[in-house]
Write a structure and sequence with these properties.
The protein is α+β, with helices and mostly antiparallel strands and 754 residues long. The chain folds into three domains: 208 residues, no CATH class; 335 residues, DD-peptidase/beta-lactamase superfamily (Beta-lactamase); 112 residues, Trypsin Inhibitor V, Chain A, CATH 3.30.10.20. The chain is 32% helix and 24% strand. It is built from 22 helices and 36 strands. The strands form eleven sheets. Strands 2, 3, 4, 7, 13, 25 and 26 form a seven-stranded mixed sheet that branches. A hairpin with a 6-residue loop joins strand 29 and strand 30. About 4% of the residues have low confidence.
């Protein structure tokens, strides 16, 4: 009886069974209703939603246009780069008992994408290819990086090795035996292959070409930013269908559509909703030959003198095209000088120019309609007190004890006292008049150049605040301008008063290859009179020949320019901004150049050396400078002098060589009075033709080499028993010791050619 009661107690209650049946029937009915609802009631809606998820409008990116240099080189273009991700997981296949399986050859079976044998065989090859593509990382760096991850207990299956790997290198790694499955193709549904902007010449002229902004991948600086709408083109719009995750196939029309549909107006492509238009190309004004020289000379000067930044610009005078624009700043990460992002020194840096601004002040005074300036006037120099403690002005350099200078000498010797005296004597009670005159000749308004860079408003301080502010303004302080504005002014002086806008783009090239020229822009057709421009050019030539710029005067073509020195920081008056601005050739100017060295412990003559390196390069490359733009090798003579009318081929040399030169030039040659190996040209009286006469070399005396070729001068000195040391090229213009001096045999004679 007890056993039966236990059996009856173990039975499931009947109500529980009925509850389970009801739950099952209810669930079934709900499922059936859901199927009916999805399939028939709302079926069309869900099918449309699914179709929209599988079909989408996708952009067909346009290819960005190239940027070319004026000499035909590609400066910037679009290239394919890849991010190299590796799947470094590697495990051995095990059986149910946890034992590692082996194949028929007894080799352990691996389940990783890159097996150990292939990994060890080609790891060095991979690292070498990566180092060749990206030299800043060594082969050892890549080997340690990859091996370190591979040795971990759980290595990552998507390990980033290097970004920005060239597409050719990436594909070579994929082709290595056993490595293809280990190279990750997509990360988070996005391909590791992408298009990037590449600068073919590396860091050269990067501020001019333009950087991609860090905060936005679709905006640029420089030419890239200013001409973005032209370079960018127009992205196409396509109907696409998704095949798998992250993969879309174009040219697939929507369901129920044909690839083309006809309307009353014609055929409509239902696949290509908007055609792709690739960007146009632009031709910059930058010449890679001049740009390379400008950067090399500027970098060398900054390294030598320890500046923090600098710029060197070269402009074509007639058009305003910028043939070179180097902007270098110290970069502690590379321990050197390079073009830094958002540091366009030429356009954005505002500074007190110092003595290069004296040309601006004097030009403005000469343009005063009241005509207060007399070019023959003499001005106080060295030291002067214009009243009170604020009125003490002293020239920083020694003027050989001179207490007065002519107006031309004030510019040549860069006298602060002389410029202050000029301003004080005439404009002390008309300070606003001088300010307005300066604003009329100098481009104080923003230039709005065609490179996207911060450009700030130039300004002049309040000249009524103190006498010191006014006096400072007279020699280049109390004003802040950019180097590009000063270059624009000097270009106008060299062009006879015609001021043009600096341009960095020369032409726009469409998809058919036809060019649309960017025409020069004239800012001011007459910033000053031609007479004023000629007076200033003569003074600027004197700066190089006789004044503070005489360290670059030995040129065959002639330079006209002005040195400048300004205190970099009033907290440390031993640090300066050195500059030199001018144009060349001085007789028929074609190019304008400006150099600025910021924060150096020296004065302004150092910038002139960079100027000369650039001008020498231009003269060597530009064959057009041989048509009379270069200075004659002969001393300047009055046009009515006898020698000017009888200018000979050579002033002296071997008689045989000179007669041959005359014969080849088809010029009548009058033989020497008496036969001799050496001859010199003798100028006869008025109305008489000069001739070559015999020249005797005196024993123990230095012979006269002036006007001879280097070959003849060296030969004559050697025959006389002396040695020669030659500097320059052309004809002999000076010698030391001078001709006729007594000297012992074997003495060294320095001869300078020009």
């Amino acid at each position: 009886m007890k056993q039966e009661n236990n059996i009856e107690g173990s039975k499931t209650p009947r109500w529980v069974l009925w509850f389970g049946v009801l739950i099952t029937l209810g669930s079934g009915i709900c499922i059936l209703w859901g199927i009916v609802n999805i399939q028939w009631v709302h079926g069309e809606e869900w099918r449309e939603l699914a179709e929209n998820r599988e079909a989408s409008l996708r952009a067909d990116p346009a290819r960005r246009g190239n940027i070319y240099s004026s000499d035909g080189k590609i400066l910037a273009t679009t290239v394919t780069e890849c991010d190299l991700y590796l799947d470094l997981m590697n495990e051995y296949v095990k059986d149910k008992n946890g034992e590692v399986k082996v194949n028929s050859k007894g080799v352990k079976m691996e389940s990783g994408p890159i097996v150990d044998s292939c990994f060890e065989k080609y790891i060095d090859t991979v690292c070498i290819m990566l180092h060749e593509a990206i030299p800043q990382h060594s082969v050892v760096y890549y080997r340690d990086l990859i091996r370190g991850e591979r040795k971990k207990t759980r290595p990552r299956r998507c390990f980033l090795v290097q970004r920005g790997v060239p597409y050719s290198t990436w594909t070579q790694i994929c082709r290595l035996p056993g490595w293809r499955r280990g190279v990750v193709q997509q990360v988070d549904g996005r391909s590791v292959v992408h298009q990037v902007r590449a600068h073919i010449y590396g860091n050269m002229a990067e501020n001019t070409i333009g950087f991609r902004n860090e905060l936005s991948s679709n905006t640029y600086t420089g030419l890239e930013g200013y001409y973005d709408s032209i370079l960018r083109g127009q992205d196409g719009l396509l109907n696409c269908q998704r095949l798998t995750r992250g993969i879309w196939l174009a040219d697939v029309p929507k369901k129920g559509q044909s690839a083309e549909q006809r309307t009353d107006e014609g055929v409509i492509d239902t696949v290509v909703l908007r055609p792709r238009i690739d960007g146009q190309h632009i031709v910059s004004t930058i010449d890679t030959r001049y740009q390379d020289m400008a950067e090399s000379a500027l970098r060398k000067a900054l390294q030598m003198y320890g500046g923090t930044a600098g710029c060197a610009m070269l402009m074509e005078m007639e058009t305003g095209y910028m043939l070179a624009c180097a902007n270098l700043a110290v970069d502690t990460t590379v321990h050197g000088y390079r073009e830094k992002r958002d540091r366009n020194v030429a356009v954005s840096d505002m500074y007190e120019p110092g003595s290069t601004f004296k040309t601006v002040i004097l030009t403005a005074m000469l343009e005063d309609p009241n005509g207060h300036i007399d070019t023959s006037m003499r001005l106080v120099a060295g030291y002067h007190n214009f009243g009170g403690k604020d009125g003490e002005i002293r020239d920083d350099h020694v003027l050989a004890g001179r207490d007065s200078l002519s107006l031309k000498e004030v510019i040549e010797q860069s006298s602060n006292v002389g410029m202050s005296a000029l301003g004080w004597n005439i404009y002390n009670r008309q300070r606003d008049t001088l300010r307005h005159l300066v604003e009329e000749v100098f481009p104080y308004a923003k230039l709005n150049t065609d490179v996207k860079a911060p450009e700030y408003q130039a300004r002049i301080n309040n000249l009524h605040r103190s006498n010191r502010d006014f006096l400072n303004f007279c020699y280049g302080y109390s004003t802040r301008v950019s180097a590009l504005q000063l270059l624009t002014f000097y270009n106008g002086i060299g062009a006879g008063g015609r001021m043009v806008k600096p341009l960095f783009c020369k032409a726009i090239v469409d998809e058919r290859g036809s060019e649309r020229k960017v025409k020069p822009v004239v800012l001011n057709p007459k910033m000053c009179s031609r007479r004023t421009a000629e007076l200033m050019r003569d003074m600027l030539e004197g700066v190089v020949e006789n004044g503070t710029g005489n360290n670059i005067k030995n040129t065959t073509y002639g330079i006209a320019g002005k040195t400048g020195t300004a205190v970099h920081s009033y907290a440390d008056r031993r640090r300066y901004n050195a500059s030199f601005a001018g144009f060349f050739p001085s007789e028929n100017p074609r190019y304008t150049c400006m150099v600025v060295l910021e924060d150096i412990p020296y004065y302004g003559r150092q910038a002139a050396i960079v100027f000369k390196a650039i001008s020498d390069c231009v003269v060597a490359v530009d064959k057009g400078l041989s048509d009379g733009a270069v200075h004659s090798v002969w001393p300047r003579l009055e046009e009515d002098s006898a020698m000017a009318k009888q200018r000979p081929v050579l002033l002296g040399g071997r008689e045989k060589g000179i007669s041959e030169a005359y014969r080849r030039l088809k010029i009548p040659y009058r033989e020497a009075d008496s036969v001799g190996e050496w001859v010199r040209y003798k100028v006869n009286g008025e109305g008489e033709e000069g001739r070559y006469v015999r020249y005797e070399v005196r024993q123990g005396r230095i012979p006269n080499c002036f006007g001879m070729t280097a070959k003849d001068a060296i030969a004559m000195l050697n025959e006389a028993g002396y040695r020669a040391r030659v500097r320059g090229y052309g004809k002999v213009v000076s010698q030391s010791p001078s001709a006729g001096q007594a000297a012992k045999g074997g003495a060294m004679v320095d001869i300078v050619l020009k």
